[in-house]
Specification:
It is a single chain. The strands form 4 sheets. The chain has a 6-stranded mixed beta sheet, sandwiched between helices. It has a 4-stranded mixed beta sheet with strand order 7-6-5-9, with no helix packed on it. The protein has about 350 residues and is an alpha/beta fold. It is globular. The structure holds zinc ion. Zinc ion binds next to loops.
């Protein structure tokens, strides 16, 4: 039973939002694009492995938990996948890395050799998995449960060539996941926990999950503020007649500021005041800015003047109130907005 699904990493939307607000020829653009490519490839790889579970059937109680993040006071654990069963616990570390891969057992170094001969040093997935295994073992011990804990590294690309491997570590290509499960069922035939106890343990793990804190990026010089057109790269929309319109392609969107708010959330933080909103969107009128903020349905703290709104992860348009009195029905253009860095 799937108890926790995997979602797209928030860094993807953050990087996409940042990249579309800095010029293509900016020195940081290639680095940001590469980071986005790497995170997206990792997510797609994990997603491909997730789909393999549909081919696997187990005859005893089992629960799948994907993308579990557990924050402790001094440390954190991010589990790619945990399969908690009444026979054993399987912990997967999923890697989407192309090239020739080497584990150095003495230095504990993990490297990838590229086609051009260059070598990249990377975090050692064997050590990552050991940490995760130890944490799960401690968790089970606190629950007075004795279940075998097995960790496996799963490589998602057939072009990942393992040249040397750490001793005793289970490592497979993703296509081998059904075979691995067959072997584990044969190795651990004993039913250790009842169905109810297995389910309770899985739910306790899910209850420990928190969203991973998103680190705000440093906004580079040349960063473009404003409500951007979805179609025209880097073009700021103008707010007039209660709608946002693009001066280049003439498209109209009454909700475009909500998209800008979601981008603000991942670039500058979830809290926003009216003056921050005006500065970011280029709306000059305090009354129009206040009406747009109030009509967005965002929760807020503070009095009218010092009100701080909390931007949600997503907007439900049904919660927004799109009745803006004619008294503030002013024409404001932000076409002259100069896009100074925040
Ligand atoms: Zn446009």
């Amino acid at each position: 039973m799937l108890l926790k699904k995997r979602s797209e990493p928030p860094e993807v939307f953050q990087l996409e939002s940042l990249i579309r607000r800095i010029p293509d020829n900016h020195p940081t653009t290639p680095h940001l694009r590469e980071k986005l490519r790497r995170i997206t490839a990792g997510f797609h790889g994990e997603h491909r492995v997730d789909s393999l579970w549909q081919e696997i059937s187990l005859s005893f109680p089992h629960f799948l938990l994907h993308d579990l993040f557990i924050q402790k006071s001094q440390s954190s654990h991010q589990f790619d996948t945990i399969l908690l069963t009444s026979h054993f616990v399987l912990v997967l570390e999923i890697k989407s890395i192309v090239g020739q891969l080497n584990f150095d057992p003495e230095l504990r170094q993990f490297t990838r050799t590229n086609k051009d001969g260059s070598v990249d040093g990377m975090r050692n997935p064997d050590d990552q998995l050991r940490r995760h295994e130890r944490w799960i073992e401690q968790f089970l011990s606190q629950q007075r449960v004795k279940l075998p804990v097995i960790g496996a590294i799963v490589f998602t690309y057939p072009s990942s060539i393992i040249q040397s491997r750490p001793d005793k570590r289970l490592m497979i290509q993703s296509s081998g996941l059904p075979y691995l499960l067959e072997q584990l069922v044969l190795t651990y035939p004993e039913n250790v926990l009842s169905s109810k106890r297995t389910q309770n343990l899985a739910r306790e793990l899910v209850d420990l999950h928190t969203d991973k804190p998103l680190k705000m990026p440093v906004l580079p010089a040349g960063f473009v503020k404003g409500v951007l057109c979805d179609t025209c790269v880097g073009v700021r929309m103008c707010y007039r007649y209660k709608k946002w319109s693009c001066p280049t392609c003439a498209c109209i969107d009454p909700y475009a500021h909500l998209k800008a708010l979601q981008q603000y959330r991942v670039l500058s933080g979830a809290q926003i005041r009216s003056r921050d909103f005006r500065e970011f969107t280029g709306i000059e009128s305090t009354s129009i800015a206040s009406k747009l903020l109030m009509s967005s349905g965002m929760s807020f703290d503070g009095s009218f003047k010092d009100r701080i709104y909390t931007i949600p992860e997503s907007f439900n348009l049904a919660d927004s109130i799109w009745v803006i009195p004619d008294s503030i029905f002013e024409i404001r253009t932000v076409s002259s907005f100069n896009g100074n860095p925040l």
